[in-house]
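Lay summary. Proteins are chains of building blocks that fold into shapes, and those shapes determine what they do. In this project we predict the shape from the chain. Here is one chain we studied, written as its sequence of building blocks.
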Amino acid sequence: MDHTRLTAAVAQTASVLLDTPATLDRALSLMAEAAARGVQLLVFPEAYIGGYPKGADFHIYIGARTPEGRAEFKRYHDAAVAADGPEIAQLAKACAQHRMYCVVGIIERDGGTLYCTAVYLGPDGVLGKHRKLMPTALERLVWGFGDGSTLKAVDTPWGKLGAVICWENYMPMLRMAMYQQRVAIYCAPTADDRESWVATMRHVAMEGRCFVLSACQHLRRSQFPAERMNNRLPEAPDTVLMRGGSLIADPLGRLLAGPVYEKDDLLVAELDLSLVPQAQMDFDPVGHYARPDVFSLRVNTAPQDAVRLGDRNDG
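And here is the predicted shape, written in a compact code that computers can read:
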């Protein structure tokens, strides 16, 4: 295997909202299609398995909830998956079959709490996960907050692989925590389809001197099960809820693929990992350009459990 060259792809596609088996089938089909095109690393969008309910409000009001909103949340909770559940096991099995690495956005169910999570998969199984630290706006009322224990990047034959989800990419200290781990392949599953997102991704690529792979869904109103979940956005079937904008950028901020809008697509690019040290010649954010004598960052990577059980001798 050539450890300096990598065929990578991002999948621009939509979940089958509230139908996890159908979404899983779609993911497995895309993995097979990507493998047939020689793809070794595939990135799916934010909340792909479990769904990103764009336009939903779950009937949440300050100081009040409704029975209808609770019923909607129950359906959404049922569509979520466990990080060690059978759905993730199926995706890992497909990675083994295709000799492929994947980053998959999921809605992770852990008891009564849902997390927006990116799962790392490889030919040898589940490599790790990252829970979104900071859900944005109304997301905070249906998703829990991740902690620093899932900030760890994972090893691949081409270097460190990490994921930063959607608006986490606007958190400078989180980005620095990734750069400190020498992430060479920086994945950004997202639901942000604005033109400004492209500038953000190109900036991250240049700042981190890494390859950036961003995947966003292409979702239309007709694909949203309005009869099972309230949606505040326009009701015309062809209304675009998320228009995509997926892309791949190199360590100098140059676009290798995308952005693509308003259609499903599988964006493929050849990554030359030798560009990483070349780009770091004049800028290394955690090396010769860091100035740790002036600036420093402490990252708490301990799990933040609500309850820690142990006997009296447990230190």
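What the prediction tells us: The first helix runs from residue 20 to 36.
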